[in-house]
Amino acid sequence: MLEKVSLFSNIPPECLYKLEKISSLRKYPKNTILFIEGDDNSQLFVVKKGLVCIHTDDNEGRQLVLNYVGPGEYFGELSLLDGKPRSASATTVEDSNLLTISRENFRGFMQEYPELYEVLMVELANRIRSLTENVKDMALLDVYGRVAHTLERLCNPEVEISPKLTHQDIANMVGASREMVSRVMKELVLGGYIEIQQKQIRIVKSFPKNW
After folding, report:
1. How confident is the model over 120-140, as pLDDT tens digits?
2. Strands of 40-184, DSSP E
3. What pTM, to 2 d.p., does this model score?
4. What is the span of the domain harbouring residue 111?
5. φ, ψ for residue 204 (rounded to 5)?
């Protein structure tokens, strides 16, 4: 399973076998809080099945969704490197099966296979670039632009959105009110740009640059 994870895609199979031996497979029901911002938890999580929401919350209960992590993806890697508290929270959106690797085991593995350091640095650089793009979107785009970019970012090769998103979910990702997002989504449906069935969103044609 780990060979399908970008972080480990270039690691020899015999090395991945050793890594799987020091990992633990755990099952979590929907809406389980895996960790919260500020926790000292220092595990790497790999999603084998299910879906996890990475988010941050303020004292008034408002939530900003940073990402959704699905099968074959991972999260929690920053705490492996610096040992500092979690910078965000993670909650399961669906019943999920997750592989967990402790910081001690992971760092020991990297010492045995130092080529993983370079792979990890490239992965982190890609994530920083993605975060930079998201910050630019939040700062420079209007609500329509942020919604359009978010839908495009979450599309898989079959041009479907995963997970099934409510308007509130999208609002939490783009930093806008649910009402504003609902207006944009309605216009995209009426314009024939997207179709929505059972909260599953499908992009039918390319979005216009401006609305």
Report:
1. 788 888 888 888 888 888 888
2. 43-49, 52-57, 63-69, 74-75, 89-92, 96-102
3. 0.78
4. 2-136
5. -90, -40
